[in-house]
Amino acid sequence: AQSVAQPEDQVNVAEGNPLTVKCTYSVSGNPYLFWYVQYPNRGLQFLLKYITGDNLVKGSYGFEAEFNKSQTSFHLKKPSALVSDSALYFCAVRDISGSARQLTFGSGTQLTVLP
Amino acid sequence: GAVVSQHPSRVICKSGTSVKIECRSLDFQATTMFWYRQFPKKSLMLMATSNEGSKATYEQGVEKDKFLINHASLTLSTLTVTSAHPEDSSFYICSARRDRGDGANVLTFGAGSRLTVL
Fold it and tell me: Across chain B, how many H-helices and E-strands are there?
């Protein structure tokens, strides 16, 4: 069975500082990894994905994530946080041999960027 | 880019009534759509996979007679919560799969529907 862990329910960071939202995963084979962001009372918006290739993936709004196979991690990062980045962030994973139905979401991390 | 429209965004109904939520892919065809339920401060729980032209596939523990799903066209799936009760109050989100050619099938999500059953 596959799973995703987001160990932090809440992350607070000052505006202008770098931010990291942690994600570790477990799949039987090779993973497809995703980050989504959710603003209050909204659906999820796609940020970035890792399929294959370069371990450092760049996505929307200046976010990036690094795939680390040995640590089974896919942490989300941004060099300089903005107040508008405050939202709920979800990491998701599925095995490349699986289907979209088998996408597993983490429990979410609430990011608050303080002005 | 791919857009999924979900309607209504908010609905309040009386206990015992039925509520229909629509999910439309606006600029692409989606043979498969997904319905999720999200509780406060919780992750998304996949309820069912909606398949165009065939019956939906429900996840374990989801009552198919309670949550009716119809996927009548390549751009529209509907979720009907029948005989709604207060415990059905939740945030329901749909998503559609668009084949981006890379095999990863990134999902595009609707904005969600907040259901409150009085």
Answer: 0, 11
Q: How far apart are CA A28 and CA A26, in angstroms?
A: 7
What is the arithmetic mean of pLDDT over A62-82?
97
B86 SS3 class: helix
Choose from B28, B49, B107, B114 for mutation: most chain A CBs within 10 A: B107
Nearest Cα residue to B68 out of B76, B78, B59, B54? B78
Interface test with B, best of A8, A10, A23, A41 (most B CBs within 10 A): A41
The nearest alpha carbon in chain A to B38 belongs to: A43
Q: Tell me: the pLDDT tens digits for A76-109?
A: 999 999 999 999 999 999 888 877 778 899 999 9
Q: What is the mean pLDDT of residues B9-28?
A: 95
Residue type at position B113:
S
Q: Which of B89, B112, B65, B66 is nearest to B15 (CA)?
A: B89
Interchain contact, A43 vs B41, CB within 8 Å: no
